[in-house]
């Protein structure tokens, strides 16, 4: 099976960058996140199994089981174990996205938060380790969108873009949740202020009533 061809035909491949290798890696990341697989950008045996099953499954639905949503409106859950951000409306999945998290996963705080600010072309202050970078610059580590979490006032932890596309699907950040730039721009248009955001490991989310069940189960 030629998985690059299949992923393109299924709509996972986008012309995000001039580098086709990065674009195909992004397609793999998106496929993995949509099927609740471990998001790592490597199309190995498990991804092949999922693709084979998916190609035969015309009635595919997201496998999530949600028993205790925080609202019947829109909300977000971030699965640190699988590196998946899911945007829900009540118990229904609207969209799934691959992410990067803290270089030590503990850097990305677990808990129940809300979105307290939304910023286009955010300025990066340097985090005490580098010179600040202007908003809108391709060198900005925050990319072109920022959605701040209520933890520490919305300026310390957030969901944002990136200037290191190969970091998505890894443990790489100082604690924030990174996304593919085109993905976070799409999500940014959907997310409102005060949207609930739950962040936890796979097991913690299950305790809270959010089961990102694998498509292969």
UniProtKB/TrEMBL annotation:
Q: Which segments of the protein form a coiled coil according to its record?
A: none
Q: Which residues form the L,D-TPase catalytic domain?
A: 74-200
The answer on whether this UniProt entry bears the keyword Protease reads no
Alphabetized, the UniProt keywords read: Cell shape, Cell wall biogenesis/degradation, Glycosyltransferase, Hydrolase, Peptidoglycan synthesis, Transferase
Identify the InterPro entries for this entry.
Answer: LD-transpeptidase, LD_TPept_cat_dom, Transpep_catalytic_dom
Q: Pathway membership of this protein? A: Cell wall biogenesis; peptidoglycan biosynthesis
Tell me which domain of life the UniProt entry assigns to the organism this sequence originates from.
Bacteria
Q: Which Pfam families match?
A: YkuD
Active site (UniProt): 160, 176
Hey, which family's this protein in?
Belongs to the YkuD family.
Official protein name in the record:
L,D-TPase catalytic domain-containing protein
